Amino acid sequence: MGSFFRSEEMTLCQLFLQSEAAYACVSELGELGLVQFRDLNPDAVAFMRKFVNEVRRCDEMERKLRFLEKEIKKDGIPMLDTGDNPDAPVPREMIDLEATFEKLENEMKEVNANSEALKRNFLELTELKHILRKTQTFFEEAEIHHVQAMHDPGLTDESMGLLGEESTRHSQALKLGFVAGVILRERIPAFERMLWRVCRGNVFLRQAEIETPLEDPVTGDQVNKSVFIIFFQGEQLKSRVKKICEGFRATLYPCPETPSERREMAIGVMTRIEDLNTVLGQTQDHRHRVLVAAARNIKIWFIKVRKIKAIYHTLNMFNLDVTQKCLIAECWCPVDDLDRIQQALRRGTERSGSSVPSILNRMVTRQEPPTYNRQNKFTNGFQNIIDAYGISTYREVNPALFTIISFPFLFAVMFGDFGHGFIMFLFALYLVVREKWIIAQKINNEIFSMFFGGRYLILLMGLFSMYTGLLYNDIFSKSINIFSSGWRPTDPKTGAFYTRQVLGDHNLQILQLDPNSSFQGPYAFGLDPVWASTTNKITETNSLKMKLSVIFGVCHMFFGIFLSFVNHRPIDIILLKLQLKYVYSLKMFTLFKFYCSTSFTCMSVYLENIHSVISSSVTMALKLTRQILPLLQSEFQGFLVFLAAISVPWMWLVKPLYLRHQHKYGQEFDFGEVFIHQTIHTIEFCLGCISHTASYLRLWALSLAHAQLSEVLWTMVMQFPLRMNSIAGAFFLVAIFGFWACATIIVLIIMEGLSAFLHTLRLHWVEFQSKFYSGTGYKFHPFSFEDLTDYSIED
């Protein structure tokens, strides 16, 4: 936990690795994940580095693996993922992997080429089969029509067959030519119009749809096609028709004129289709076996290739010594883990068989080290909130440690409802319990990933909301009398309790209770449920939540000021910041101590003795008069005003003057720049004392808005069916309850929860962290095999 409070102590080290042991040593450091290497060749382009050829070979291997992965996914074959993390292969194993991938790629390409050729042949035979069937129907219809015309002289020339004998008015038979083919169904209307316009209506088109979709041999998509036959006369029209068919990418097939020839061709086509089906089946079986074998190992292969690539990419950041036998590297690493790094280097040297040990030397540098905070799955979500504002400066106090409690608590102050918090808690609890299963699913949805990453934060937010909901006695806008109310409706004259009959006899709609006789004692925990049925409920809860908001804000900011002690030098704290900040905080605590006590015990104190927080704050500085407040209040207020007055020039002037005196006999010092900077800082802090305190009133505002919105939703939606005494009211209640539940989850939990989350985020980033946190560092990015996505290539 110490490294979580303050970042790890880092040191800059220099590595001396023998060339034959460098690969194994870097591999061990990658498995360890505690070293951040510096690029010693920042000006060298990628193709001029020493191991650029090895990196290119890794890119080529990964390209082949992606090709195999694409084919595996195309066939819907599951890829085995055992979760194993194999060690990085030795360099000589790289040759075996290249040979394996080359063999698989060539085999798959050959299978794909053969399969595509077979499918194209199968498509042609299938289209020819449909052409023979459809054209046979066309010719049979023409023959029947011709016979009818011969027996019925009343038929016109237009109703005679196109390929049969001429009508009785002509003595010589007329022979028409024709072409048949297949075209995409959506191109038929445009195809028909083009034929009509180009051939000027001198052709006759018949078309019929193919009922079953056909598979495209290239893309594998299902396409709808139609069979057509075009009748024409003369070679000129034939040439035009073929050019139009070519332009519309229609496929033409030979079609015999006589029925016997067509029947004989159809038999041959069916035989060839059956043979092709057999060959296609065998080809697909072979392809499936190859892909299944590759699917068992492809995840392991990806990890191995990316580890090799990561190692050579890191080796490209090293320098060679003059003898070209030793690699020199510089790296940042945690001081506490130097022993583990030394052990990893020894293991790498032993694996490589080198007789010369690797050397790790600590270096002295003035460069700012990276920030490294050790994390786990619980603290990761809270640390991400802090890092989104800015990476903490090296060895600076890490606010994430305190955010674990303060963030869900301040959220719960605004979201205080036991029922809503319980729903949020159950959702987060499901994510926590099922986290291993969810991680195994590898869900890529960005929004869900954000919720899942902050599951422990949401869990605490729901838990704290349940706690504040009990304090507010608010469960879905309803109050519950758990510990028995401290109020009893008592007649101040007789001392007897009021009953329903007495109230009815006196026709009392509103009963005013006297605290002296009706108040029996404070409620055991939280707000007394009697306030839920009073007409001045909002007045009381407003007063309570407003005071609590300011008290929480002052405590939060005072804690931030206290944390600034560990981030600055003693002179900077004692002389410059402590006075004003401490006086300010003490002043605020003194002011609100009395108002807090009166808020919770106002039943035993006369209301005219309670003064406004705002008016007292103003009066404190402008009019030092004695009020009906604790003993010596005005004298103590005057003392605080005096300290605040002298703290402003103290904070403004002492630091520039002290620094000028310190550099009087030393190096050059720009007094004007320091003075202006300190002036701006003093103005900002003095104004922030007021504005930041007022900013915490958002706790009160959002808490009130959330409670009132929940109450309005219950009153406007659920109250009506609950008052119905008929059977229809029960069925109506079911439908209304569904609407109320959906509105509660969408509006009150998701939308209101997001609003409270953003306001809590602002309070931490601006009001709390501005007191001590600079966030100007840079993150520690160690060389690690845990995340290899940086070393993958795109398709």
TrEMBL record:
Keywords, sorted A to Z: Coiled coil, Hydrogen ion transport, Ion transport, Membrane, Transmembrane, Transmembrane helix, Transport
Domain of life where this protein originates: Eukaryota
Pfam families: V_ATPase_I
Subcellular location: Membrane
Matching InterPro entries: V-ATPase_116kDa_su, V-type_ATPase_116kDa_su_euka
GO molecular function: ATPase binding; proton-transporting ATPase activity, rotational mechanism
GO CC terms: plasma membrane; vacuolar proton-transporting V-type ATPase, V0 domain
GO biological process, one term: vacuolar acidification
Protein topology in the membrane: Multi-pass membrane protein
Regions crossing the membrane: 409-433, 454-472, 548-567, 588-607, 636-654, 727-751
Coiled coil stretches, renumbered: 51-128
Main location: membrane
Family, similarity comment: Belongs to the V-ATPase 116 kDa subunit family.
Chain's role: Essential component of the vacuolar proton pump (V-ATPase), a multimeric enzyme that catalyzes the translocation of protons across the membranes. Required for assembly and activity of the V-ATPase.
Name of the protein described by the UniProt record: V-type proton ATPase subunit a
